[in-house]
Amino acid sequence: MDILNVFVTIVYVLVCIALVVVVLMQEGKSAGLSGAINGVADTYWGKNKGRSMEGALVKITRALAAAFVVLSVVLNII
Questions:
Q1: Which of 23, 38, 73, 77 is the most buried (most CB within 10 A)?
Q2: CB-CB contact of 13 with 73 (8 Å)
Q3: Residue 1 is assigned to a structural domain of this protein
Q4: Residue 3 vs residue 41, higher pLDDT
Q5: CA 3 vs CA 7, 8, 10, 11: distances in Å
Q6: Which domain does 57 fall in, by range?
Q7: Quick check: is 27 in a domain?
Q8: What SS3 class is residue 42?
Q9: Calpha distance 39→25 (Å, rounded)
Q10: Nearest 5°: phi and psi at 2?
Q11: How far apart are CA 48 and CA 74, in angstroms?
């Protein structure tokens, strides 16, 4: 049981670090005044957001957040 606990803890720390890095790499949702002026120009990027780097970061964030929750529960049970 001790080996499993150490392994899950190491994976948990790696997931935590990766989650912080991925969240910091994302752009903010509000673009300020320039976002209000260029609202029409963002329609192309809004349509193709899932295929862009930003879309990939959102998917990675969701997966890491799910792993974070699952590993938190597993560590609590162990």
A1: 23
A2: no
A3: yes
A4: 3
A5: 6, 9, 11, 12
A6: 1-6+49-78
A7: no
A8: coil
A9: 23
A10: -65, -35
A11: 37
Contact assessment for residue 74 and residue 4, using Cβ atoms and an 8 Å cutoff: no
What's the pLDDT tens digit per position in 9-55? 999 999 999 999 999 998 877 655 555 555 555 555 555 655 688 88
Q: What are phi and psi of 40, to 5 degrees?
A: -75, -35
Chain position carrying tokens 């991925």: 22
Q: Is the dihedral of CA 53, 58, 64, 67 positive or negative?
A: negative
Is residue 39, in this structure, part of any structural domain at all?
no
Pull the structure tokens for residue 50.
């899932």
* Crossing angle (nearest 10°) for helices 53-77 and 2-25: 150
Is residue 61 domain-resident? Answer: yes
Query: Using one digit for the tens of pLDDT, what is the confidence trace for 55-78?
Result: 889 999 999 999 999 999 999 998
Q: How many domains does the chain have?
A: 1
**Residue whose token pair is 């912080």:** 20
